[in-house]
């Protein structure tokens, strides 16, 4: 993005995990990184200082009450007329064609665990309502489905559908397991069945959503 904007533009990257930051020597001169938990108020010098705030793919780390708290904090960063642009993938949008028993079992296991740990299964579908309640105007959204792309993103989606299974199931197992996942052997079974289904031609897809709103 820095290469597409005037040199006078100032870019700030924010994450609560500083290990994800690029090395300072790799950053453009007009870009800086900051460690901060965005669920907490931002420092005073940042308030009302930004023309645009961009949020991307944080749903996995969000509890039910976090969405509104974060939206309110992001609102404070924007100048009047500034925009928030938010990108997410909904857990409920994942599909599998043709149907896969292993995928359905995995999806149900993950959904029940997500509810158990306090995540909101209705997000990001209700995010536009949250933004309006927090004061944003001109709120709108646009969605893309991976099945609507020319090649249906077959390569990347096959990779996601196999490589995402194990780490998520291991997290569930470490958190006490589920009716399906009680041991590493259960994880192995689901992972192997999913890989076999993908090799047999099953294709996983999902809906990608952009939501945006303006500070009046």
From TrEMBL:
InterPro entries: SAM-dependent_MTases_sf. It comes from the Eukaryota. Gene3D superfamilies: Vaccinia Virus protein VP39. This is Methyltransferase domain-containing protein. It comes from Colletotrichum higginsianum (strain IMI 349063).
